[in-house]
Amino acid sequence: MFVSPWLMGLIFLGIVPLLFGIVISLTNYDGTNMENLKLAGGNGLANYARVFQDPGVGTSFKQTLLWGSLNLPLWMIISFVLALILNQDVQGKGFFRTLYYLPTIIPAVGAVSAWKILLGQNNGLFNEIISIFQPGTALGWLTTYSLQSLTMVAVWSGVGSAMIIFLAGLQNIPDELVDAAKIDGANNWQVIRHITFPLMTPVIFFVLIQGLIGSFQQIVFPLILARENQFAPPKGIFLYMIYVYQQIFQAQRFGYGIALLWVLTILVAALILIVFWSQKFWVYQGDNNPTGDN
Question: Structure pTM?
């Protein structure tokens, strides 16, 4: 009885939409033809077959991999370094923790709109600063360097959330271990390398999983960055989810668009399983060693 509200939510807001999505992905549904709905290609698999023949899928997926390989390491490294610094007994650390976390709670539309003012080609602050040293600079931050700009916005917006998670992990490391290492003559780098980092690997693993999933789901930032281009981002930020958006909301291919999402779900799930399998080689599991060989 007490779990019935949760159970109802799980069924009607979780399981039913998933099943409905699977059914729609097998059809020619375009948003208006419910009365004439039929299986795509006659057997329902035409949408999925088309995924592997569509050049737009390959282009957008490769760009998503490139975006993830650039954004994810930067986001994790910067967040981890900030957490290390703010875990020290420094003056004003509470203020700086709040300052670095603030971008996380700023709405995406407002945050990206502000960044577009900074990144504008003609009157943007970045180009104005560069023009002091190189007069007449008009770099296309939102076109030519759109991938780099998207990375800056995403890292700035998300660094606070990962920093808080890393900070929580750092504060759970026993001070006795650090003090014992320093008594034995270990310097700060040796403490980080041999104590802090191994004990933080479970937290790093958790943040890595979050980051991998988020990298493949990114859609809001590139859409807003390319708003003047009528939701047609430049090649640098033509991510997989952007292509899905175009297929569903511009081309009205709902069945095909949902098939694209299911293919992405399977690929991401396979990648996550590989990462879970790899944790036995590098994630600290307990009493004996970081590789988990008990």
Answer: 0.89
Structural domain includes residue 169: yes
| Mean of all residue pLDDT scores within the chain | 89
| Lowest model confidence (mean pLDDT) among 37-41, 114-118, 126-130, 166-170 | 37-41
Instruction: Give the domain range for residue 68.
Output: 55-282
112 in a structural domain: yes
Encoded tokens for 192: 């980080």
- Give the whole-angstrom CA distance, residue 86 versus residue 72: 21
Radius of gyration of the chain (CA): 23
Give the 3-state secondary structure of residue 145.
coil
Q: Looking at residue 231, what is its pLDDT?
A: 53
| DSSP-assigned states of every residue in 249-263 | IIS--HHHHHHHHHH
Adjacent-strand bridge partners of 39? 27
Q: Which of 161, 177, 148 is nearest to 70 (CA)?
A: 148
3 state SS of 53: coil
- Domain total in the chain: 1
Closest CA to 217 of 67, 38, 4, 50: 67
Sequence-separated (6 or more) residues with CB below 8 Å from residue 208:
72, 76, 275
Q: Are 25 and 262 within 8 A, CB to CB?
A: yes
Share of the chain above pLDDT 70, in %: 95
> Which range scores top for mean pLDDT: 13-22, 40-49, 114-123, 270-279?
270-279
